[in-house]
Amino acid sequence: MTPADMEARIVRYGDLVPCKTAFIDAHTPGSDQKENFTIIGGGVSESADQHVHIRDTPGFNIGAAGQPPKCRNSLHTHSTAEVFFVLKGRWRFFWGRWGNAGEVVLEEGDIFNIPTGIFRGFENIGTDYGMIMAILGGDDAGGGVLWAPQVIEDAADHGLVLGENGKLYDTKKGETLPDGIAPMPLLDQAVLDRMPEPTTADVIPNYVARYWDMMALADRQPADVISETGMLRDKPGFTVELLARGSISDDSYSTDTHEVLMPVRGHWKLSYEGGETVLNPGDTCAVPPGVTRSLRPSMTGEASLYRIRSTDDPAGPTLPV
Question: Taking the domain 14-208, which CATH number applies?
Answer without folding.
Answer: 2.60.120.10
